[in-house]
Amino acid sequence: MNTLTVIDLNDSNIRVASGGQMLLNSPGYAVIKDNKIAFGTSAEKLTRIYPRSTHDDYWYRLGQEAIQSTSNQIRHNADLAYMQLAEIYEQAGKPANSLIAVPSSFNQDQLGLLLGLLKAANFQNIKLIDSALLASIKALNQGEQLHLDIQLHQSVLTRIETDKNHQVISTEILPDIGLMGIHEQCARLISHEFINQSRFDPHHNAETEQLLFEKIPDCLARLTNTSISKMDIEYKSQSFSANITRETILKELLPLYERIYKRIEKPEVLLLSHRFGNLPGFIDGFDNANMLDEFALFTAAKNYTEYFHKSDPDNNYLSELPVLEPVANLKTPSTGKQQSTQITHILINDIAFKLDGRQYFFTVDHQIETKQSADSQYSVHYQDGHYSVKNENNAQVFLNDNIINSKTILALGDKIKTTLEKSSTMIMVK
């Protein structure tokens, strides 16, 4: 059976994987300079340096309406989308079979246009699927569930029902609540902290403003499990630093979080995209939320590969999938938080180690330390009512056979393993 290449078409970071390997990341940015066009990560590193030459909404506003452009190659947003898809096609090794996971925010006209752009970019054997449905599959229980995702310029609520099939039944767009707006709010706050602490304004010139925005995602990710994060900016052989606290970031972001909270009627269970896992304090606003694994979408695509290959070739867009595994009939499902609060020990090679709320670092040979070292493979820590695991030192760590690259909430019975382990011994959290 031919390998299936999977594309997660979220403009905050278009991810491409094939055969269990992540091939590339390509954020939805384009920068036109001197009649040359850069896309993805290359473009993202130029957005603050050439703001008037930057396009960041061509996926958000995908269409064929005329736009202002400094290049005669670009007439409308569809041209930019096509060019990025063509670049992805080449970088991904010209895939023979492609599954494109598309956000629920795409309307019928945009889906038709996207299909045409993919074919024009030489993609073959294309199947489109609702990305919320695909990412949620393993977490779905009998009945209705709500999935929440975030893009550069908006957030999307997708209601999914599971009975004999998993099916998308409704979509709601939350406009103007996107990662770009969050990062811009944080940039203003962090710049103020630099001025107060180092007498340095990162917004003073384009180069340091660019460095500031590049560091914000990592700063926010650190503040999901620490109370303070130090940010350094190097400029003209000088180093400037500012300590950013979780408290000040939460004070800045809480009004925006509240706008999302108010749009969500308390569902039986809310499934959060992994993208919210790097926003400090966001999950604290819910008592019934599960954070999906970063690679949940790709794992589900692998499990459904045979179905995709055998499905009707004339059905180009899927918003419904068959149930491959029995699902629970739970009116009040256990959430990640509820399960995590029951965790008391971590079992390593038949020896139970009691967890007492502190942060612990684990080495490849199962040594447990209270401070991070060069040998640390992953850490387990308690915060806001739940335990989480995070890989350290860029180590490859698996949670229930799925690679993790960011903090992930633990539940009873989870298994953690590193690729460097000499044996197949699994670590059981219970």
Report on the structure:
There is one protein chain. The protein is α+β, with helices and mostly antiparallel strands and 430 residues long. Among the domains are: 5-132, ATPase, nucleotide binding domain (Nucleotidyltransferase, domain 5, 2-Layer Sandwich), CATH 3.30.420.40; 336-429, Tumour Suppressor Smad4. Helix content is 26%, strand content 31%. The protein is built from 10 helices and 28 strands. The protein has helices spanning 40-44, 77-91, 108-120, 131-136, 179-198, 206-222, 246-261, 296-303, 305-310, 336-340, and strands spanning 5-8, 14-18, 21-26, 30-33, 36-39, 54-55, 98-102, 126-130, 143-150, 154-162, 165-175, 228-235, 238-245, 270-272, 289-291, 317-318, 320-322, 345-348, 351-354, 360-363, 368-369, 376-383, 386-391, 397-399, 402-404, 408-409, 415-418, 427-429. The strands form 6 sheets. The protein has a 6-stranded mixed beta sheet with strand order 3-2-1-7-8-16, sandwiched between helices. A 6-stranded mixed beta sheet has the order 15-14-9-10-11-17. α5 packs antiparallel against α7 (246-261). It is globular.
